[in-house]
TrEMBL record:
This is Glycosyltransferase. It holds the Pfam family Glyco_tranf_2_3. It comes from Solirubrobacter deserti. The lineage of its organism: Bacteria, Bacillati, Actinomycetota, Thermoleophilia, Solirubrobacterales. Signal peptide: none annotated. Keywords: Glycosyltransferase, Transferase. One of its GO terms (molecular function) is glycosyltransferase activity. Pathway: Cell wall biogenesis; cell wall polysaccharide biosynthesis. It is an enzyme of class 2 (transferase). Gene3D superfamilies: Spore Coat Polysaccharide Biosynthesis Protein SpsA, Chain A.
Length: 342
């Protein structure tokens, strides 16, 4: 049996002094010789760094808040273990979680990244059992709110793996460049997963690894700005040309519907800001696209197979539930899928 790989756990902390003690205590009990534990302090004003040091972690103090994506990049660069494990500071790994993630590395050598089964507080309901990626570039937590048993027990592929408790082979991480620091936070896990899949790596979930997450989706309107800006960066970067071109009319048309959703949801200003940010960043986004597409190793139809036509996100509101909307977008996606198979 192959030797279990050493793990470098990276926790990006920002004003996290209250959450870190429980997370680090649960994690340290699972570390093995050769493992690394790094807490990246994103210029916190509280005692996050001191709390992490007291718990025995190596602390990397940054001079400014570079966000989750930039913090993970810094933490990965400060470690050397062959398996990276990114863990949110408000996530508490259950006993055996790290061992299950190590085991998945041996059982699925084709996987570049995989997540733990992330549960809501109490551990009885799913937070995410693997992300769902709609062809519009939107991603959301799979099976959120479902009983934990619904996630099953077997290793399986997912469209994208959650960054809340994410294992990544260093080989794969370095091959595709890791998280893009420009994202700051939100959707960097979806973007990384799509780029890994584009480059020929698998992405999955190891349900035997359980992590309890103090989850709250509603973190202010600014989150919607980041989600929408980053969604477009991901689509422009990861979607192969033969997929992107026929999708562009629908992607642009969907912007009108999203303006309605944003207005009803109270984040119209952030949606408009996101659109402006994407337009301003187009030269950078297209340069990035050339780099990403140069790494493609899979047929377009295979990449497209990981995208969904369902609009069952709990966060999109009533517009997505309208029968004509659901039927039209599913039919459009079916047509595009047939085109890319030609």
């Amino acid at each position: 049996m192959a030797h279990a790989p050493a793990v470098a756990t990276v926790i990006v902390a920002y004003e996290s002094s209250a959450e870190l003690p429980g997370t680090l205590a649960a994690l340290r009990a699972q570390l093995e010789p050769g493992d690394e534990l790094v807490v990246v302090d994103n210029a916190s004003s509280d005692a996050s760094g001191a709390v992490a040091r007291a718990a025995g972690a190596t602390v990397l103090e940054l001079e400014r808040n570079v966000g989750f994506a930039g913090g993970c990049q810094a933490g990965a660069g400060a470690t050397s273990a062959p398996l990276l494990f990114f863990l949110n500071p408000d996530c508490v790994p259950a006993p055996g979680a790290l061992a299950a993630l190590r085991a998945a590395a041996a059982e699925r050598p084709d996987w570049g990244a995989w997540q733990a089964l992330v549960t809501l507080e109490g551990g009885e309901q799913v937070n995410t059992s693997g992300g769902v990626t709609h062809w519009l570039g939107m991603g959301w937590a799979g099976q959120v709110g479902a009983p934990v048993a619904a996630a099953g027990e077997a290793l399986r592929d997912v469209s994208f793996a959650s960054g809340a408790a994410l294992a990544v082979r260093r080989e794969a991480w370095e091959a595709v460049g890791g998280f893009d620091p420009e994202y700051f936070m939100y959707s960097e896990d979806l973007d990384l997963s799509l780029r890994l899949r584009l480059a020929g790596w698998g992405v999955g979930i190891a349900p035997a690894a359980r992590v309890e997450h103090a989850y709250d989706f509603d973190k202010g309107a600014y989150k919607w700005f980041l989600l929408e800006r980053n969604r477009w960066w991901t689509v422009l970067g990861a979607y192969p040309t033969r997929l992107l071109v026929p999708l562009l009319p629908a992607l642009l048309g969907a912007e009108l519907a999203l303006l309605v959703v944003a207005a009803r949801g109270g984040w119209l200003r952030e949606k408009l800001r996101a659109q402006a940010a994407v337009l301003r960043s187009l030269p950078w986004a297209l340069r990035r696209r050339r780099r990403v597409q140069a790494q493609r190793r899979v047929p377009v139809r295979v990449f497209a197979g990981g995208l969904s036509a369902t609009l069952d996100s709990p966060f999109l509101g009533p517009v997505a539930e309208l029968a004509p909307v659901r039927t039209l977008q599913a039919a459009y996606w079916g047509l595009v899928r047939r085109l890319v198979r030609v």
